[in-house]
Amino acid sequence: MAAEEGDLGRAQRWLEASETGLVCFDRDFRFVYVNAAAAQLVEVPRDRLLGSTQWEVFPATLGTELERAYRHAMSTGERVVFEQYWPPQDLWYRLDVRPGPDGLDVAFADVTESKRLGDEGPAATAHEAQALLDLLTETSAALSATLDIDEAVHRLARLVVPRLADWCIVSSRTPGGQLTDLAVAHRDPRLERVAARYARHRVAAIAPGAPAHRALAAREVITVGDGRAESISELVSRLVTTPTARRLVTELAPGWVASVPLLSGGRVIGLLSLYRDAGRPGWTARELSAAVDVAGRAGTAVETARLYTEAALLAEGLQRSLLTDPPEPEHAEIAVRYLPAVEAAQVGGDWYDAFVQPGGTTMLVIGDVVGHDVQAAAAMGQLRSLLRGIATHSDGGPAEVLAGLDRAMAVLGVHTLATAAVARFEQDDGERDRGLVRLRWSNAGHLPPLAIHPDGSVVVLGGWRADLLLGVDPGAPRRESVLTLDRGSTVFFFTDGLVEDRRTDLDAGVARLRAALTEFAALPLQELCDAVLDRLVAGRPDDDVALVAVRLTGHSPDQGAPADVAPLPAG
């Protein structure tokens, strides 16, 4: 027992003689031990500290990195090492917070001199270098994985917070030099809402000599601030001019700002604005170098995404310009839909068409050119025009039209592959009297249509049997299938983007479509199409989606044949 008491006394003397401040907190952040160095460093008598909480003695630490570190260590059991500027003394402290079952043990030391000299010690330097290397690696991986500009800038914001900044704003720059704030991130979810509001007001309020303007003009990183809480108002006045913007940024309490231009090919395409809270250290030279590297990689990625987006919008615009409204025959209601892929780069060559042939029959087309780019969209336009010309000149049936299209592609050198299904609705006198319509169709490698009978049952027409794709062999035979439908039936043509994605194969997708059509069979045709799209792709398809749905309304026997339904010759 005597030996143990001697050891405890020896440990106590060692703790008291240490030049490092040592304090212990209970789980309520109440001081239960303070050594002499700690009391001397914080310039508060030990008897005032013991029994009081950290927040009672030092209320100015609430909301700072110190509070976040203490609470994080207490709640997670993770050790936290960080640096904190303490404005009342104009000193920097390095704190080592170690959680235990009874509370926190904290060691801290004055590192002001080393901060001013830029000497961070070999261990800290190695750790920082590795962390920044990891950041650069993650930046390249994350930004190269998307071609969507909005996704890219939000990924960038999440990468740099909290490793390079407490919060940040990512902006794009127009050719005229105007900034547009695109993404915001803050390490505190509550303050992220404030930062987002600030971003909405910031661009119109940026001060003439603000670091944002200077960074864009100089094409180099510009930093301002001194990290002191009492300097916040001065820093805010250098950033923005309007009362609303100043109020919001003051609430965010920055101590440092770094404006880093996003460069691509020597052009400034945007800005990365980094902020660190008052009371936090500024950026080291290595951190600023990493920020410039991150911004360079981000600039290249964002510019690449922009070019892909422009190409995709061109392709989509070309597609939409060719996807005309369907005719309105008396014997049927026709609904069409086109939905581009959620990823802009996936816009391709899906198309639909519906028109009346010279003989009065209504012809429907659904097709998909292989590929997902402007070339696919352009090829789609060629095929659509060729098919229309062949169908309206020849007045031929679906197989004849597809065969003619295949031969025309070979003669004209349209080197592409495509699937297509062509259908025609026909009716002779007897069928018209009984309210029946014949569906005649031919399928060049496309998914088969589905039919909803008046009783609500749904069938796949023709199974998976289809002829060769277009563009493979211009002499390939083309077959036709014929089905007699009752008045009130609905035929549903679609492209594979509706039923196939990264998680669902074609068989499962068609089964889902069939189930949805069964469930929504009684809906009006336009509502049916919207409900199916919502159920299967929720407005965000992986691939283009085109569909054509036809509901046969029939025609009263005593009204005679409508002008757009050609009677068939006998036999």
TrEMBL record:
Gene3D superfamilies: 3.30.450.40, PAS domain, PPM-type phosphatase domain. Transmembrane segments: none annotated. One of its GO terms (molecular function) is phosphatase activity. Residues 148-312 form the GAF domain. Signal peptide: none annotated. Residues 9-75 form the PAS domain. Residues 331-552 form the PPM-type phosphatase domain. This is GAF domain-containing protein. It comes from Modestobacter roseus.
